[in-house]
């Protein structure tokens, strides 16, 4: 994919994120890996007014010569691309239900087998740190260890995937799981699946090769 096409796809993904109701206004951000670095949505610009040329190119050293400033959250995007070779796209959203759980500092436990879509037996909530800081990025990377998604305490969520469409689909799934878990908590204590059962589910997802697409079958 050419960089111009990727810039257009980043804007489209950010617009879809808001249209799907998993993010509002200018919060959240979207990025995609390119050779030697990544492209990320700019700070302080409504997605409706963001043009492909407004998307900011950054190196893995965190440098940019673009006229616009990158999202204030560029650090965790940079650190994820630097640490995770398989990561090619990141969606960060302040989605309502994931953020609700994150405000309680709750992980999403294995209350439903689809929790495995994020790569493990649970979806962790990273401890709170101020937005845009290295500390937040360090917490996020730890919560993402062995996972493709995490919650950020008192903040939102991150979904990491191999493409923009897959990252958006994962963010939507994590938000759906957060809503289901929140609803179950309203009327009782959800039954959790055992580690052995989640290992079976994870193995099935891995053997499908394309868990995000095939798991819905
Ligand atoms: Zn944020």
Task: Describe this entry's structure for a reader.
By secondary structure, this protein is α+β, with helices and mostly antiparallel strands. The protein is built from 7 helices and 7 strands, in the order αβββαβαβαββααα. The protein has a 7-stranded mixed beta sheet, with helices on both faces. The structure holds zinc ion. Residues 27-28, 73, 92, 94, 131, 155-156 line the site of zinc ion. Zinc ion is lined by residues 27-28, 73, 92, 94, 131, 155-156.
Compute the average pLDDT.
94
Number of helices: 7
Uncertain regions spanning at least 5 consecutive residues: none
Rounded radius of gyration (Å)? 17 Å
Q: What overall geometry do the principal axes of the alpha carbons give?
A: globular
Bound ligands:
zinc ion
The ordered string of helix (H) and strand (E) elements is HEEEHEHEHEEHHH
Secondary structure category = alpha+beta
- Report the helical percentage: 40-55%
Largest sheet at a glance? 7 strands, mixed
The strands making up the biggest β-sheet line up spatially as 3-2-1-4-7-6-5
Distance between the termini: 29 Å
- Tell me the strand percentage band: 5-15%
Please tally the β strands and state the result: 7
Care to give the gist of this entry?
With 217 residues, the chain is α+β, with helices and mostly antiparallel strands. It is built from 7 helices and 7 strands; from the N terminus they run H-E-E-E-H-E-H-E-H-E-E-H-H-H.
């Amino acid at each position: 994919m050419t960089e111009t096409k990727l810039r257009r796809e980043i804007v489209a993904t950010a617009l879809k994120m808001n249209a799907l109701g998993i993010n509002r206004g200018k919060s959240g951000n979207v990025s995609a890996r390119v050779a030697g670095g990544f492209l990320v949505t700019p700070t302080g610009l409504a997605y409706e007014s963001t043009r492909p040329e407004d998307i900011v190119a950054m190196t893995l050293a965190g440098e940019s010569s673009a006229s616009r400033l990158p999202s204030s959250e560029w650090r965790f995007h940079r650190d994820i691309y630097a640490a995770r070779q398989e990561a090619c796209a990141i969606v960060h959203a302040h989605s309502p239900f994931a953020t609700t759980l994150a405000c309680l500092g709750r992980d999403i436990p294995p209350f439903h087998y689809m929790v495995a879509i994020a790569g493990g037996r649970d979806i962790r909530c990273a401890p709170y740190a101020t937005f845009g800081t290295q500390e937040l990025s360090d917490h996020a990377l730890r919560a993402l260890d062995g996972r493709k998604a995490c919650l950020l305490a008192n903040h939102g969520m991150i979904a990491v995937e191999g493409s923009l469409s897959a990252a958006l689909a994962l963010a939507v799934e994590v938000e759906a799981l957060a809503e289901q878990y929140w609803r179950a908590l309203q009327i009782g204590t959800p039954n959790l699946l055992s580690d052995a059962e989640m290992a079976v589910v994870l193995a099935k997802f891995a053997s499908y090769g394309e868990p995000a697409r095939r798991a819905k079958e």
